[in-house]
């Protein structure tokens, strides 16, 4: 019996919708600021006052932000998080950290091996996610109805 009252589910969906929209705008602003940072770093490299590693780091950071933006935008539309977007962002974060370690010349072999193992696992997870994609939205209520109809 619904008399136009807001249910908990509607309230939760509305709050999540508002939060994801705010996060999308924050990510968009971060991408724009990141692009200005890239141009600033390119200018410093051009003037021989900065390192090329900072440009690479800034560009990889923008790619991470773009992947997070894609994940939130996809969630806004489909109300689910795709594993491929999350693994892509994580792979980019690991690659960014490897790049920083290599350019700074402050890395140990064990650290690089751990990052390599992590990249291997993330690549396998991403490959499995692409090979066996989720089968759309699964509605809990429809699963309960299917279970109840099977009991009768």
Automatic annotation (TrEMBL):
Which InterPro entries does the entry link to? P_starv_induced_PsiE-like
A GO cellular component entry from the record: plasma membrane
Q: Does the keyword Membrane apply?
A: yes
Tell me yes or no: is Calcium among this UniProt entry's keywords: no
Question: Where can this protein be found?
Answer: Cell membrane
Q: Which residues cross the membrane?
A: 15-39, 51-73, 111-129
UniProt keyword terms in alphabetical order: Cell membrane, Membrane, Transmembrane, Transmembrane helix
Topology in membrane: Multi-pass membrane protein
Please state the protein's primary subcellular location.
membrane
Pfam families referenced in this protein's UniProt entry, alphabetically:
PsiE
Coiled-coil regions listed in the entry: none
Instruction: Write down what this protein is called.
Output: Putative membrane protein
Q: Which organism is it from?
A: Methanolobus tindarius DSM 2278
Q: What is the lineage of its organism?
A: Archaea, Methanobacteriati, Methanobacteriota, Stenosarchaea group, Methanomicrobia
């Amino acid at each position: 019996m619904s008399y136009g009252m807001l249910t908990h589910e509607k309230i939760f969906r509305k709050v999540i919708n508002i939060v994801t929209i705010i996060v999308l705008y924050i990510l968009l602003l971060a991408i724009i600021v990141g692009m200005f940072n890239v141009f600033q770093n390119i200018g410093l490299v051009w003037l021989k006052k900065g390192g090329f590693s900072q440009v690479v780091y800034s560009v990889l950071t923008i790619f991470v932000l773009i992947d997070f933006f894609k994940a939130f935008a996809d969630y806004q539309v489909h109300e689910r998080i795709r594993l491929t977007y999350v693994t892509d962002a994580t792979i980019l974060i690991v690659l960014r950290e490897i790049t920083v370690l290599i350019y700074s010349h402050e890395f140990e072999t064990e650290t690089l091996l751990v990052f390599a193992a992590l990249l291997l696992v993330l690549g396998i997870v991403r490959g499995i996610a692409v090979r066996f994609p989720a089968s759309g939205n699964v509605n809990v209520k429809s699963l309960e109805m299917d279970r109840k109809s099977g009991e009768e």
